[in-house]
UniProtKB/TrEMBL annotation:
It is a single-pass type I membrane protein. The keyword Glycoprotein applies. ATP binds at residue 59. Gene3D superfamilies: Phosphorylase Kinase, domain 1 (3.30.200.20), Transferase(Phosphotransferase) domain 1 (1.10.510.10). PANTHER family: LEUCINE-RICH RECEPTOR-LIKE KINASE FAMILY PROTEIN, LEUCINE-RICH REPEAT RECEPTOR PROTEIN KINASE EMS1. GO terms for molecular function: ATP binding; protein serine/threonine kinase activity. This is non-specific serine/threonine protein kinase. Signal peptide: none annotated. It comes from Medicago truncatula. The keyword Iron does not apply.
């Protein structure tokens, strides 16, 4: 779907239709929509279309006015990438200097929200070990698809818990793949830190070469798995000071305190009786990550 000032193209049930009314409708919902997220590439709003479909609209960070053709070309490429463990891009548009991306809405939000933000609210939902494994498997499949099945292969460059979304069946979907390359192509004035991942998730070797690789994505995914086991934000200064989750976990292992790294809720769920096998699986998974 591409929206221009003169018309809007919508893809519904595999058929392309044009309706000028949808243009005003989407903008109206966008302005009135509630903010549900904010990341390195822009803000995300929830909106409801005329047919009742819930969507998430990402308003990209303000870029230069150049690169419209490149934006459209890259969006057309990303729109064609479909896989069960990737968040599908439903459409995109340019309104003045604003660039908007329309995604399928994910019922349970991001993994980051599930692990961290909801802890302070009354609707806290503690993920079971089986759910954590399911989320990790889904994210791994999505990342693997980008690395091996897309032509050309796609390096995510910013794999983290906020880019792993959860649908209504708690199936994980990877978000923002290809965004770093798009933003860097449209605006060369952005800093390297904006384009190359998030502190706590970025592999140490990146700071030596400043090159993003598939192996770097895998490292970042490993940090997400540790986050699933530990429940702490990987780059939280209050928890880890000058180090991060990975560095802190290695220190705990050297001190013989590896059990302190696993979140208490997970230990309580898996300890004793019939869950003894699960406890061993949790510990085994953690040791493999370290």
């Amino acid at each position: 779907m591409f929206i221009s000032n003169s018309h809007v193209m919508l893809l519904q049930h595999g058929k392309l239709i044009k309706r000028k009314s949808h243009y005003a409708l989407i903008l109206q919902h966008f302005r009135a929509a509630s903010l549900i997220g904010c990341g390195g590439f822009g803000e995300v709003f929830k909106a409801t279309l005329k047919d009742g479909t819930c969507v998430a609209i990402k308003k990209l960070i303000r870029l230069s006015c150049q690169g419209d053709r490149e934006f459209m070309a890259k969006m057309e490429t990303l729109e064609k990438i479909k896989y069960k463990n990737l968040v599908p891009l439903l459409g995109y548009c340019k309104v003045g200097e604003e660039r908007l991306l329309v995604y399928e809405y994910m019922e349970y939000g991001s993994l980051e929200e599930m692990l961290h933000r909801r802890i302070k609210t009354c609707d806290r939902r503690i993920l079971t070990w089986e759910e954590r494994k399911k989320i990790a498997r889904g994210a791994a499949k999505g990342l693997c698809f980008l690395h091996h099945n897309c032509i050309p292969h796609i390096i995510h460059k910013d794999m983290k818990s906020s880019n792993v979304l959860l649908d209504n069946e708690m199936e994980s979907r990877v978000l923002d793949f290809g965004m770093a390359r798009l933003i860097s192509a449209l605006d060369t004035h952005l800093s390297v830190s904006t384009l190359a991942g998030t502190p706590g998730y970025v592999p140490p070797k990146y700071y030596q070469s400043f090159r993003c690789t598939a192996k770097g994505d895998v490292y970042s995914f490993g940090v997400v798995m540790m986050e699933l086991l530990n429940g702490k934000r990987p780059g939280d200064k209050e928890d880890f000071g000058d180090t991060n989750l990975v560095g802190w976990a290695k220190i705990k292992v050297r001190e013989g305190k590896q059990m302190e790294v696993i979140i208490t809720d997970l230990l309580l769920e898996t300890q004793g009786g019939t869950n003894e096998a699960e406890l061993k699986e949790v510990i085994g998974t953690y040791r493999q990550l370290i």
